[in-house]
Amino acid sequence: MHLTLDLIDQTESLSSGNLELIEKMLHHAAKTEGIEEGSELSVTFVNNDEIQQINNEYRGKDVPTDVISFAMEELGEGEMAIEIKDAPRMLGDIVISVERAKEQAADYGHSEERELGFLAIHGFLHLLGYDHLEADDEKVMTEKQETILQSFGLRREQDEKQ
Asked: At 5, is the secondary structure helix, strand, or coil?
């Protein structure tokens, strides 16, 4: 496998099939993005209350969100990169709200699997430095997400009907 993944379902609500799908999708995304074999990543699945606390603590926004990423390679002001020879690349951590994923799947009219997959890829791309604050960056990130999801075979249900 391409990545060393740690998937933690704190909600205990995801099926083994959901977790397997996300694992396969992240391996596919890592391969697509040319990520080094053995790079490490964690994904934690939480409820809305938990992600709201995280969002408030780290982003100053006291509302639940769908996904938050913590990139290990992103340096803050005055921080220095630490490189250890022959150590695996540590990409970071992704936190996904299962409740928000289910709500958004219903809102957008597609499956929960598609929404969980989208959020995992969205968070993964943030770990790689992609962002969507500026219109040009958002276009690049959106296209990259759709390319990965479609090449993996996880399309929006309305796309499949056309």
From this structure: strand
Three-class SS of residue 38?
coil
**pLDDT tens per residue, range 61-103:** 999 999 999 998 654 555 455 566 676 778 999 999 999 999 9
User: In this structure, what token pair is assigned to residue 101?
Assistant: 């994923």
pLDDT per residue over 129-138, tens digit each?
A: 999 989 999 9
Cα gap 71→86, rounded to integer Å: 20
First to last CA, the chain: 34
Question: Position of tokens 């499956």?
Answer: 111
- Specify the CATH architecture of the domain 3-76+85-161: 3-Layer(aba) Sandwich (3.40)
CA–CA separation, 16 and 7 (whole Å): 11
Tell me the HSE value of 86 on the side-chain side, using a 13 A CA sphere: 0
**Strand 39-46 vs strand 3-9: parallel, antiparallel, or unpaired?**
parallel
Q: β-strands 3-9, 67-71: how paired?
A: unpaired
What whole-number distance in Å separates Cα of residue 60 and Cα of residue 15? Answer: 32
pLDDT band at 12 (very low <50, low <70, confident <90, very high): very high
